[in-house]
Amino acid sequence: AAGGGVPTCRWKHTAGEAAMLLLAAPLLLLGAHDGPAWQGSPQADGLYAAYNQLAAFSQQCQLPIKTPQIVVVGQQTDGKSALIEALMGFQFNHVGGGTKTRRPIALQMQYRAECEEPRCFLFEGGRERQVGLQELKAYIEAENSRLEAEGAFEAEELIVRMDYKYCPNLSIIDTPGLLDFDSAAQSTAPSAAANARAVRELVVAQMSAAERVILCVEETRCWQSSAVRQLVGEVDPTFGRTVVVSTKLDTKLAQLSGTSDLLHFLAARPLRESHPRLLGGPFFTSVPSGRVGSSPLHGFATDGEYQDALARTEHANLEYLREVAAPAADAATQPGARSAVGISRLRRFLEDLLRERYLMSLTSIIGQLQAARERTSQQMAQADELLEELAPSRLRGLCSKYVSLFMERYDLTIAGTVATDTAPIGQTLAQERAEAGALCSDAALGADFSALVGEGGAGARLFGGAQFHRLLREFELGVRSLPSVLVTDEQLSNALGVDAQHDALCYGRAVCQAAMSHSLTQHHELLTRLASRVEHVVARMLLHAAATADEGISAAAGAGALRATARRSRMISETIGGFLRRPVEEAFSSLLRESLRECMQACYTDIRSVVAPRGGASEVSTLWPIFASPANDVTEDGEVASWAVGGWVGSGESAVDALVTRLVGAWRRQFALAVKRKVRYFLISLAERLPTHLLRSLHTMCDEPTSTSSLDVASARAALLEHKAGLETEHARATQLLDRFYSLRGQLEEGSRADRPAEALAAGRG
Predict the structure, then answer these.
(1) Which secondary structure element, helix H or strand E, spans residue 123, and what is its range?
(2) Cβ neighbours of residue 220 under 8 Å, at least 6 residues apart?
(3) Which of the chain's termini has less CB crowding within 10 Å, N or C?
């Protein structure tokens, strides 16, 4: 009733959904009266059992099958977990002060008249196993305690199925309690704000699925605003799939002094006016305090006592409302408010709602199961093709295909691509320097370092060719930042010898040669660090190329197949690509080290050539011409000056110091250009030599099956066979579930056809 206290329920349906609801009318009417009689009908039992099996199947196989569920959200200590226990009729969760629920708990509840005691099943490690209630309690409390000790929250749902004669037919997800972000931000604990954000993200993710109903639980006396409702509104702006529950009614009845205050609270007009499309509520509930246990500290000795206490609390609240509120309440408000009070009313509402959603989803579920079965069939065919590829006669061809895919990905990694998520493989400059060492200190780079970090965006995560380019840029800045080395008079005299003590040209050359001799160690260390960084960057190119080649080889073997699930695709990649990836990585690494050693040797030769004796060097170098004819290369004074600073000779020799600075600057520039040229050539040469080197290594392993370095085909075949067996099990379960949902739809259609003659006869009589 608009504006009244009756819990609203506006369900809008498409034409197809309306037709299904007409077919399901006999089943829907089963829940129209009080009591559990409808729950034991064969149709209802079959419907709930089928959806529970579907949920378990979806979780086990990680299939994205969308099924209606109820997600419970609220702030910590608002009574979410206690409310769920009251709906179930027994206690099992870790309830109390603080953030006790640290991992979503998916509860699949089903009414079973024959179950006098709760029968619990825990989904763990891809399988379901029956557990005792105490074992389940201990398991949940241990999980929450573990996460609390780690200061963490976990997004993966803990799945529990429960059969009980007092259980409703509901599928509910209990989420961690939301933390007050403002209070967390002001907390002295450094993890408080991070925890608040983590919980918020986890809860939003649980609410985001469009097929889920949101049960918004709050302990409030003010309907004007709510932090929980504000968060729910971000996901469900119209509140068209949200049901509001106000907990701890018994305390509010004691706090609300006047009858008008009580009626105003129960009417909740601000809530209804703010959210006219609210799916349901507000409901008002109370849960008696105390836990079930055998010690004197426990409030209840048995679940039966707990259930009796629930009933008494609800009855007491209703009686209080009749006595206190009835005389002053108008007829439109007070009866509706009473109908929304109590756990039993909320449970009946949620059961009716979820049952309707189940019936509306039948056609959609059948389509999703058909697609899942088809995908599994295609993946089984793919596994058969991959098993054939492992035959000795075709193994060389598989290796050639893998190398071809690897090189395609490797070349793309160097050239650049936008088709890759950089988060797992890209690195910021700080991460790269932390793992492989810095070429020089941040202080030495100065302002140039800030410019380098800014390339590609501050803290950009680069990989492949982009990361390689950034490294060479840092190397150039490292060369520019090298300090000067003072050449003493004693060193100069010894360098000039007997004939050239008064020769100005020889004096200048001697200063330069002495300066280069001093900086030899400086440049040698810089090249050593560069080699380490180059190996690190290129090795990361290997990781990306090998991972994408693994995916490619599995996809190529199943050409034409429907897209596999992420888990299945990963399994195939790790099975087939995995046993080829190890030898490819080893062969790649050996060629990388060999090629890099050759490149660095050429760079070291350039350094040694600079300080070679005058009159000719035994090794050819691109740097020696600078000193043979220094005037030819010392041009563009401004540019050369940026490569070196003064301070090579004493303060009384400023003219000589300026000449040496210009010569050293020209040499450093030539040195940096030569090294960058050689390192770039190394990268190109490596890419050209790789295909032949990898094929030769893999083919050698194929031709020597008994060698210790041969390919481990037996393990790959065994893993594939195990994978195929799992697919066959999934296919059988999908077929079984599909048949079950077909049967449910057939029963509804048959019931509808049986009703039509009677309807026609009644119409004729009219």
Answers:
(1) strand 119-124
(2) 226, 246
(3) C
Taking the C-alpha atoms of residue 127 and residue 122, their distance in angstroms, rounded to an integer, is 8
Measured in degrees and rounded to the nearest 5, phi and psi for residue 423 equal -55, -45
| Average pLDDT score over the chain | 75
Distance CA 761, CA 743 (A): 28
382 phi and psi angles, rounded to 5 deg: -65, -40
Tokens 């979806």, residue located:
58
Cβ neighbourhood burial of 339 (10 Å; 0-12, 13-18, 19+): middle
**Terminal-to-terminal C-alpha distance of the chain:** 32
The CA distance from 381 to 379, in Å, is: 5
Enumerate the β-bridge partners of residue 280. Answer: 243
| Angstrom distance (rounded) from CA 57 to CA 54 | 5
- Give one DSSP letter per residue of 55-66, joined into a string: HHHHHHHT----
* Lookup: tokens for 137: 């309690």
Phi and psi based region of residue 57 (left: phi greater than 0; alpha: psi -120 to 50; beta: remaining): alpha
H-only helix segments in 342-428: 343-360, 362-389, 392-415
* Strand-pair partners of 160: 107, 122
Question: What is the Cα–Cα distance from 447 to 330, expressed in whole angstroms?
Answer: 76
Q: What is the pLDDT of residues 76-86, one digit of tens each?
A: 878 888 898 89
Per the CB < 8 A criterion, the answer to whether 132 and 117 are in contact is: no
Residues 59 and 157: beta-carbon distance below 8 Å: yes
Q: What is the pLDDT of residues 505-551, one digit of tens each?
A: 677 677 777 777 777 777 788 899 999 999 999 998 888 787 766 55
